[in-house]
Here is the input.
Amino acid sequence: MDEARAETVGRVFREVLERQAFLFADPAEGDLVVGTGSMQGTCLAATMAFRGAAEGGLSLIVPESLAGEIATNFLGLDASEPATPSQSRDCLKELLNVTCGHILTSLQGEEPVFDLSIPEVGEVAASEWGSWSVRPDTLVFQVDDSAVLLTFHLNGPPGAHDAAAADKGPS
Amino acid sequence: MAYNILVVDDSETMRAVIAKSLDLGGVALGTLFQAANGAEGLEVLRREWVDLVLADINMPVMGGVRMVEEMKADPALNGIPVVIVSTEGSATRLQALKDQGVSAFLRKPFQPEELKRTVETLLQGEGNG
Here is the structure.
């Protein structure tokens, strides 16, 4: 992912996560970026696609425990009432959906029309974490003590779609 | 005055978030109806008295856009204000939805106060009209 696009995608994700789940994402460093040492148990992967003015997809992979924390914050639950697995998955899909919509507007501006697929959630074993984290279109964040992977890709020639990134001035 | 509101979203969790936001925002709520897609929403609208609809766009079975089309074609339903609550940010599409009869848009993520302002603007405007 080129630097301008990565900056936009990362900024949008951090803003949405903060506003929706009251959590802060920082760029990950060290072992969190490539290693599986800190990853225990199951991770949840939310994925969705978009098409229209450009085609591509967005994926978000988080440890199951963090998905629970996201849901607890998003739903305003208290500690004695932890989110159910179903709520965790729903909130992860919602986080992905909102992030995707805002990324597309930030990269493409407000004129193009996109159709977004309905997000889906599956499980990813911690052992697969390393292969996801080193993909060139993946950004790795640290949220609390957990790593989070956000993968954004556009189909087609590199840089061909970033209208807003190329021209950030008002139109 | 309390208002009956229908929330149409395929995510039960999102429906709960909207319900909580209505509560936190202090919207005077009568009955909160819920539906998981546009088709279910139309069933509720044909069965119950609803003052306003909050609907997602992207849902299985029947999405929010199609639901609005069906509402506008039905004389019994075409006066009910519809607020689209979604991630949609395309001005082109929002204008098209407005042309179809959507009353207002609320882009996610939103704050309870924004939801309250949107709902009350529509309902009080209607009451005054």
